[in-house]
Design brief:
The structure is a homodimer.
Chain A lengths: L8 E7 L28 H9 L8 E6 L3 H5 L7 E5 L5 H15 L4 E6 L7 H18 L2 E6 L9 E10 L2 E8 L4 H10 L2 E11 H11 L1 H6 L2 H4 L3 H8 L8 H6 L5 E5 L10 H6 L9 E9 L5 E12 L4 E6 L2 E6 L6 H13 L1
Parallel strand pairs in A: 1-2, 1-4, 2-3, 5-9, 10-11, 11-12
Antiparallel strand pairs in A: 4-8, 5-8, 6-7, 6-8, 7-9, 12-13
Helix pairs in contact in A: 3-6
């Protein structure tokens, strides 16, 4: 696929998400990336690792997750994968920077792809080809490459990347980043064209990324220096991560660096950020209902009914989500899926009383 | 309250209902009469026994339930109450006839009140006074007295009693019985007046009832004769009940007998036949929601949310029932409460697969 020495390539999988949008199916001890949401019935993490395997062998795949999930995450990964627990969550910038330091120390001049663990991507070949192309550009041109997803709807929950001057086939300089726009702006982006969703999939050389971080976020770069002194990555991470600010890589680096490129994805992509998104990919019964597990729907239309460890029954509903899982129940209109977090917060507060 | 010798009076409580309308809160091992649906937070059965205690002492109260519920039912009854398990359900006529034979054998000339175990009645004094009046009439005039509830809405799920000639204060001969009328007929009944709901609350002498049964349903009377030969009521019931036809007392006796009277109730009454009926009697939050147990409602209006043994969470719903109980979940519009049985049937069928 490329002439570049593949042994310089690593993959970093970020598997720290809490996935509260699928509560009560998802929960702290089984977040979204561990749910059987992939099309093959496996977890999104396992599917991510299968895609990663086309980019690097297991021993050069690093999975970062929260400390309490390490064993469950490891069970979804190919043997030999390095799974490391973060003592605290500090968003993506510190995690990616720490991984960059590890890779650079092991393999000077290393490049790596950053993959979120909880997205759905079906076309593995197109994915591998795009990432190879992104890595090659990152290696040869010392640029920070972000994968841009051609938007299919005026989604307000994503970040948008506006492309600038062309820099190669499906590759562009980045003109602007926009975090979660209003509905009006999102519609304008789609109308104007030249905008992509920021999927959190990146490719860069470790040294190039760390140089950029030093410029854009020097305090964070300094906070991470202690890692270099630790013989063991886990020990070092446990020591330095709590001292880092919690900040996304988009905000810490990409929005400020001057060597950022966007590569337009040729693969399908879905962040499965809600019940509605998951349901779009599931088989439906003759009345449009998605039934999963112990689910019963009587005179229902266009509903999502999930029963795990118990029966979820719906009667006479339209466009509703009914979930019974882990000893709890959620019911809401499908279009309110973005707000499930508010309910899980309220439920947690109630449990804590 | 009366000059009649009270030691002739018994109470029969019918506690055999399965209460599938409250599934999954109710279930075979905890049917509606055992749920904490009474206003004081206790079970409807316990509340029924408290009312019964004004009519007869525990040793002259007989509770018939299904064999597998005997211990749970006994736990809700005053010490000394006789609780007998029916080996099979045969509707009300055989159960009442068997009890009549028992009472008549123990106390020739005995009278008794028949009380369903799963209705809600708050005014215990009015109830006791009405039943005393009904029993007195039954004893003195050898009539079969049924309590008529003044209807407050054109309910189609109840039987209606049309009153005939006056026979005393709030007492009338019965002109007609109508089982579950159409909506149109129910509305006509309310418009015309002189109709009552049949609440399944009766008062009569044991011998008068058995004479009537012999005339209206001779085969059933014959099938029960074996009871008289058994020294022990439970043993006799186990032997004869399976041989009896399953038939309601209304259909077997009241609709055919010529000595039936209706006494207009002066007490409140609700059969709590649905979630909506139960909710009408519960406190509500400022948006009209009834929250019971581990229940969370976010941006909901006029909903019923019940969480038992786990959290039930509702988001953005209007006039819905959300129940999490006994490891199962039901969601339906409140007005579909009458159809819950169809879901519990489907859920059971699913479990049995």
């Amino acid at each position: 696929m490329t002439s570049e020495p593949m042994s310089h390539r690593y993959v970093l999988v970020l598997a720290g998400g809490r996935g509260e949008r699928f509560w009560p199916w998802s929960r702290p001890e089984r977040p979204k990336q561990l749910l059987p949401l992939a099309r093959d019935g496996g977890s999104l993490l396992a599917a991510t690792m299968a895609r990663a395997s086309k980019l690097a062998p297991p021993e050069r795949c690093l999975v970062l997750t929260s400390a309490d999930l390490v064993e469950r995450v490891r069970a979804e990964c190919p043997r030999g994968t390095r799974v490391i627990g973060e003592p605290v969550g500090r968003n993506t910038a510190p995690a990616i920077a720490a991984a960059a330091m590890l890779f650079q120390r092991e393999t000077p001049g290393a490049s790596f792809a950053v993959l979120p663990a909880d997205h759905a991507i079906d076309d593995r070949d197109a994915f591998a080809a795009d990432l190879d192309r992104a890595l090659t550009a990152a290696e040869q041109e010392r640029v920070l490459v972000t994968i841009g997803i051609p938007p299919s709807r005026p989604e307000t929950g994503f970040g948008y990347i506006e492309r600038g001057a062309a820099a190669g086939e499906r590759r562009y300089r980045v003109a602007t980043f926009t975090e979660k726009p209003s509905r009006d702006r999102a519609e304008e982006f789609l109308r104007r064209g030249g905008f992509y969703w920021n999927a959190g999939i990146f490719a860069w050389r470790a040294d190039v990324f760390l140089e950029a971080l030093k410029k854009t976020r020097p305090a964070l770069a300094r906070a991470l220096r202690g890692l270099a002194e630790s013989q063991d990555f886990q020990t070092g991470l446990d020591r330095v991560l709590p001292e880092c600010e919690s900040i996304s890589v988009d905000y810490a680096v990409l929005e400020s660096a001057d060597n950022v490129m966007v590569l337009e994805a040729s693969f399908d992509w879905d962040d499965l950020g809600s019940w509605a998104a998951w349901a779009r990919r599931q088989p439906r019964d003759e009345r449009g209902n998605v039934l999963y597990g112990d689910a019963v729907a009587v005179e229902c239309d266009d509903c999502v009914v999930v029963g795990e460890g118990g029966i979820a029954a719906a009667l006479g509903l339209r466009s509703m989500v009914v979930v019974h899982a882990a000893g709890a129940t959620l019911t809401c209109p499908i279009e309110r899926g973005e707000d499930v977090r508010r309910v899980s917060d309220a439920a947690r507060a109630r449990s804590a009383r």
